[in-house]
Amino acid sequence: MKILMVSNDFLPNPGGVANHIAELSKAMVKQGHEVTVLHFCYEKPEHFSEALAGVKIIRKQLAKNLADQQSNYAKITRYLTTIILGSYHIRKTIKFWQPDVIHWHDFYHTSLAMWLIKFKGKKVLTNHASGYLEDYGKGILSQLKLKLYAKPADIVIAPSEELLEKSLILNKPCHFIPNGVDAIRFNPAIIESKEWREKLPANIKIIIAPRRLDPKNGLEHLIKAMPQIIKIIPNVYLLIAGGGSTAEQKKLETLAESLNVQMHYTITGNLPYEIMPNIMALADVIVIPSLMEAVSLAALEALALAKPVIASNIGGLPYVVDDEVGKLVPPADPVALAAAIIEFLQNELLCKRKGQAGRIKIEKQFIWEQIAKQTLQEYCYES
Question: Which of 17, 22, 208, 319 has the fewest CB atoms in 10 Å of its CB?
């Protein structure tokens, strides 16, 4: 089978969607299929064409220097260039490669481009978007808009149970397939990052939040929890493993200074995905304090490393994190978050037991080979 993956988010971009597409594509190639990824870029990519473990990658630059811009001009330009230029590149790829399936992973931009595509094969949309959940909650008119976005798809795949439930309004066959994780790259035997271990103070308890600097990721509430944690465990340190906007970083830095916890945390900035297992291996506990979360690849990666996970009880997180492998806390609740972190950091046996249970859960439910097989079955689904 020839499968064309389409997205405006792909490696080397950090984040769950980019890695989902890469790992799913590699798993499909291992099972004997041909996969090409068509990546729409809003700035000049380092490589326009390359291969990744048998997956062909084609990058098309649709705009200049607009990848992280949040102005109205940038947002409108990204939409227009994806609709006009993106649809052109999809048609061109169809003509010369003749795929059996087009599978896109960007609910908003690429869905509009797909309106202009005539294609006799299967058209599949995976709805990763946490923004979808926000739009869903805005009422009937917003939900009508969501239906229009999804109209070109034959099938919708939802990687969380909440997204599945709220995708039913799209009037399409909707099926739940969870995210997967590379259980070889992320495994309990991974060696800690020597570079980052040397950067951190000695003899400390380490909290790691593998999160982008985005308000929806709830990092301000984790920083607000730090004074309570430090009071009980003075040798604690928070590593926020991710980057983002300068404005959001400044906001978090100002908050940390106001709470006098600036000596107890570091924001790493964007990190190469290749070293994330080594960074996360440093953790005594992994924290996902999201205010909105469709799915969380970072939580799965933490469990694969046999790390206990404390996460917000919101979105797709309860499907991944439960009392067997970690703990759920109310979102935007620094007091509850601090109490959970203190409980774990004071009990090494508890952390070890939950970490081991997390690894077992990954091996049973979240291996990419299994996820790829389920997805390939959807390509053959007839409504």
Answer: 319
CA separation for the pair 167, 109 (Å, rounded) = 17
Q: Give the closest residue to 4 by CA, choosing from 80, 113, 78.
A: 113
Q: Is 99 helix (H, G, I), strand (E, B) or coil?
A: coil
Are the CB atoms for 358 and 303 separated by under 8 Å? Answer: yes
**CATH code at 194-365:** 3.40.50.2000
Helices and strands, counts by H and E, the chain: 16, 14
Residue type, 133: L
| Plot region of 301 (φ>0 → left; ψ -120 to 50 → alpha; else → beta) | alpha
How far is it, in rounded angstroms, from Cα 39 to Cα 18?
10
Planar angle of CA 335, 245, 235, nearest 5 degrees:
40
Q: What are phi and psi of 377, to 5 degrees?
A: -65, -35
pLDDT in tens, 323-363: 999 999 999 999 999 999 999 999 999 999 999 999 999 99
Report the alpha-carbon distance of residue 381 to residue 122 in Å, rounded: 9
Q: Which two tokens stand for residue 293?
A: 């979360």
Structure token pair of residue 239? 């590593």
- 300 three-class SS: helix
Strand partners for 175: 157
The neighbouring-strand residues paired with 102 are 4, 123
Same fold, 2-180+367-379 and 194-365: yes
Cis ω before 12 (30° cut-off from 0): yes
Please, which residues bridge with residue 240 across strands?
Answer: 209, 267
Q: Where are the domains of the chain?
A: 2-180+367-379, 194-365
Residue 293 pLDDT: 86
First-to-final CA distance of the chain:
20
pLDDT at residue 377 is higher than 80: yes
Q: Which one of 3.40.50.2000, 3.40.50.2020, 3.30.70.270, 3.40.718.10 gives the CATH number of domain 2-180+367-379? A: 3.40.50.2000
Residue among 65, 186, 167 at smallest CA distance from 126: 167
